[in-house]
């Protein structure tokens, strides 16, 4: 009964699949932000943090590429550009995650506070990070829809690793020299590496089936998931409006997805009705010799 209902409502089931995967990515992003903030409390080295992710991606998906022994479907220099914007989007995101999550927690606890010491610089970093993320998402969506998903992830991992290795000695050398590796720091790095590996693994699939717009809309709930994670770990209280906001955001994403699917279906039908094959069949059915095809039997 339930399986037949899902088959009859294939469009609706696809929407639920997209919503579920979108929220899975959003929750995983919240875990990434949480683990990166834990690492930032002990050492400020966002590039080194991202290096663990790119290294894991290069090893796992690069091994699959070597096993396939196939040529690249996209020129390597495009992957260098894609990896560059991805690395710097992650860099700015990791720099801002600690301070942004701290402000979220302060607002949840009802603690007042002034603005940042450099609000203009903070706004610029947010805009720059959003720009890099947007470029990365659009480029990744194009590659996974037109080419091979495994290749895209492997090349982002490989060239992302090379970009971070080239920039770490310039930006984080002094920080690494004074770094004290503790159990908590290693755990934070490991948690970030695993969660970000899952993020990069799931995101291309989500982009392939839903697109960049719906993907970015799904990420609107990541801050709410971050608050839920903090609440679960630190037993902090959250105002009920957060739950209401979460429901409203998910409902809005559902309405957008449903409207988009209906618009796509209508456009497909309209294109089909104007196709030469459809017009030819319509002319044949309306010809004088074919009245019996459409007239009812006596």
Automatic annotation (TrEMBL):
Report keywords, A-Z. Membrane, Transmembrane, Transmembrane helix, Transport
Taking the record's annotation, the residue ranges forming a coiled coil are none
InterPro entries linked: SLC35_F1/F2/F6, SLC35F_Transporter
Q: Is Zinc found in the keyword set? A: no
> Which residue intervals make up region (Disordered)?
279-298
Q: Which domain of life is it from?
A: Eukaryota
Q: How does it sit in the membrane?
A: Multi-pass membrane protein
Compartments (UniProt record): Membrane
Q: Where are the transmembrane segments?
A: 12-35, 47-67, 79-107, 119-138, 150-169, 240-257
**Is the keyword Transmembrane helix assigned to this protein?**
yes
Q: Which family does the record assign? A: Belongs to the SLC35F solute transporter family.
Q: Which PANTHER family match?
A: DUF914-RELATED (PTHR14233), OS05G0444300 PROTEIN (PTHR14233:SF18)
Which protein, by its recorded name, is this?
Solute carrier protein
């Amino acid at each position: 009964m339930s399986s037949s209902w899902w088959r009859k409502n294939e469009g609706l089931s696809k929407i639920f699949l997209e919503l579920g995967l979108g929220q899975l990515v959003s929750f995983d992003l919240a875990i990434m932000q949480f683990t990166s903030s834990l690492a930032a409390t002990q050492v400020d080295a966002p590039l080194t943090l991202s290096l663990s992710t790119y290294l894991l991606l290069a090893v796992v998906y690069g091994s699959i590429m070597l096993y396939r022994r196939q040529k690249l479907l996209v020129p390597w220099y495009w992957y260098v550009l894609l990896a560059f914007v991805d690395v710097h989007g992650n860099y700015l995101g990791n720099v801002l995650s600690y301070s942004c999550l701290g402000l979220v927690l302060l607002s949840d606890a009802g603690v007042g506070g002034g603005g940042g010491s450099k609000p203009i610089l903070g706004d610029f970093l947010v805009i720059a990070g959003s720009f890099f993320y947007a470029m990365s998402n659009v480029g990744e969506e194009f590659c996974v829809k037109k080419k091979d998903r495994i290749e895209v992830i492997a090349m982002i991992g490989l060239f992302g690793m090379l970009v971070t290795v080239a920039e770490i000695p310039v930006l984080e050398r002094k920080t690494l020299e004074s770094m004290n590796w503790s159990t908590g720091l290693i755990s934070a790095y490991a948690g970030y590496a695993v969660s970000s590996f899952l993020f990069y693994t799931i995101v291309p699939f989500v982009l392939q089936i839903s697109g960049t717009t719906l993907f970015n809309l799904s990420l609107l709930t990541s801050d709410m998931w971050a608050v839920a994670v903090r609440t679960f770990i630190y037993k902090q209280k959250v105002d009920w409006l957060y739950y209401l906001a979460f429901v409203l955001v998910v409902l809005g994403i559902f309405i957008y997805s449903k409207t988009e699917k209906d618009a796509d279906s209508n456009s497909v039908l309209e294109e089909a009705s104007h196709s030469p094959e459809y017009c030819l069949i319509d002319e044949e059915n309306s010809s004088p010799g074919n009245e019996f095809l459409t007239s009812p039997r006596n």
